[in-house]
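hey
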């Protein structure tokens, strides 16, 4: 569930940097980032969209060729998962494509902020969704950080060929 424009965007922001992704689905964006990142880490518990385990297997198949890629299988909101990711950080790029509920989006941005570099890129997928926009604005507003939007792409519908279901990119500075 991605597009060539999104893959190109991720590579542009990630080249030579440490990349963290929550919600890997079938691993396309994680593998794409691994091509240029110094380290790419994905987090997913495969609880959505994967009743038969196909997406998890597809992800491992896509990333197995990359020595600089690691998949953490776990619930991104649990302390144990966050601690595993923390050992690999700080990260320069954070791509959030996990649960798009307002509460979940807010919590992920808040919880993973501490794992990021002093200045980092935050990429939020499915920007068309009002809950995602609201949660992102609330989370960024609640952090002791500054942020500015770099890019914002709304789409006419989900599964658009350009930016799927919208995407937004922020530059975040810790205070």
């Amino acid at each position: 569930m991605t597009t060539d424009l999104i893959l190109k965007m991720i590579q542009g922001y990630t080249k030579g940097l440490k990349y963290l992704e929550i919600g890997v689905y079938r691993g396309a964006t994680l593998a794409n980032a691994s091509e240029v990142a110094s380290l790419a880490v994905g987090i997913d518990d495969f609880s959505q969209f994967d009743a038969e385990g196909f997406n998890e297997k597809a992800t491992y198949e896509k990333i197995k060729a990359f020595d600089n890629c690691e998949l953490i299988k776990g619930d991104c909101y649990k302390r144990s998962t966050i601690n595993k990711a923390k050992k690999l950080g700080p990260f320069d790029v954070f791509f959030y494509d996990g649960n798009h509920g307002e509460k979940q989006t807010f919590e992920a941005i808040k919880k993973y902020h501490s794992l990021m570099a002093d200045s980092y890129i935050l990429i939020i997928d499915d920007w068309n969704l009002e809950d995602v926009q609201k949660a992102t604005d609330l989370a960024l507003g609640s952090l002791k950080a500054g942020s500015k939007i770099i890019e914002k792409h709304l789409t006419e519908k989900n599964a658009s060929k350009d930016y799927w279901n919208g995407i937004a990119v922020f530059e975040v500075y810790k205070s």
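The chain has one domain: 4-174. The chain has a mean pLDDT of 95.
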